[in-house]
Amino acid sequence: MDVSQKQSDNFAAACRMTADLGLLRCSSGNMSWRVGDDLMLVSATRKWLGDLTADDISHVRISDGKVLNNSLPSTESLFHRGILKKRRDANVVLHFQSPAATTLACGNPENVNFNVFVEVPYYIGDVGIVPPAEPGSQELADAVIDISAKHDMIILKNHGLVAIGKDLNETIQKAAFFELACDVILRGGNNTVPITPELVDRIKQSAANKAV
């Protein structure tokens, strides 16, 4: 399958948007987008998403990881490809390192209730957590791929975050809402009061009904 110029431009623009929203620094983030049954676009290795152009995009076959152009993919493409293979309902994977969310990822996120405003249970749902592992390793990829079966937001402890969605805007929105929730938690401290579990359940059910 050929990748159109419009697809490349749209993907590059979405990558730049993540930097504009403060979701990453320098070359810290990477993104992928399914554009065919067996093809994904992924940001190239060591490229800054804030400056990404169509020339900085790698074309990768999802089934076997074969690179189909002259641009090497991000070292994290292992879990991007694995998630897209596992989750046929998902088309975009974003790895980001926004300040507040990464701060909590470097602490004890297991003890944090992220449901501090309605967008978290409605758009994000439950948050998955994986233990520290070497970036770009098969160990990290396996852990992220496994937990992605039940989570659209994943905390990589002492590393960063992964957001999963159906399209570019939806995925970026999840990342932005999660960063905002983490910022509220850090700023509010003990004064931050999460939504009650009963309301969280009702919000999740409302989201599930609208997705049908």
Please sum up the structure shown.
With 212 residues, the chain is an alpha+beta fold.
Q: How would you characterize this protein structure?
A:
- The structure is a single chain.
- With 212 residues, the chain is an alpha+beta fold.
- The protein has a single domain (5-211), classed as Class II aldolase/adducin N-terminal domain (L-fuculose-1-phosphate Aldolase, 3-Layer(aba) Sandwich), CATH 3.40.225.
- It is 40% helix and 17% strand.
- The chain has helices spanning 5-20, 77-86, 99-105, 119-124, 138-147, 168-188, 197-211, and strands at residues 30-36, 39-43, 57-61, 92-96, 127-130, 153-156, 160-165.
- A seven-stranded mixed β-sheet has the order 3-2-1-4-7-6-5, with helices on both faces.
- Helix 2 runs parallel beside helix 5 (138-147) and helix 3 crosses helix 6.
- The longest helix is centred in the last third of the chain and has 21 residues, at 168-188.
- It starts with a helix and ends with a helix.
- The mean pLDDT is 96.
Beta-strand share of residues: 15-25%
- Name given to the CATH homologous superfamily: Class II aldolase/adducin N-terminal domain
- Which structural class matches the secondary elements? alpha+beta
Mean pLDDT: 96
Put simply, the count of helices is 7
CATH class: Alpha Beta
- CATH topology: the name is L-fuculose-1-phosphate Aldolase
Rg: 17 Å
Helix content: 40-55%
Biggest sheet: strands side by side, in what order? 3-2-1-4-7-6-5
Distance between the termini: 30 Å
Main pleated sheet: 7 strands, mixed
DSSP strand tally: 7
CATH architecture: 3-Layer(aba) Sandwich
Overall morphology: globular
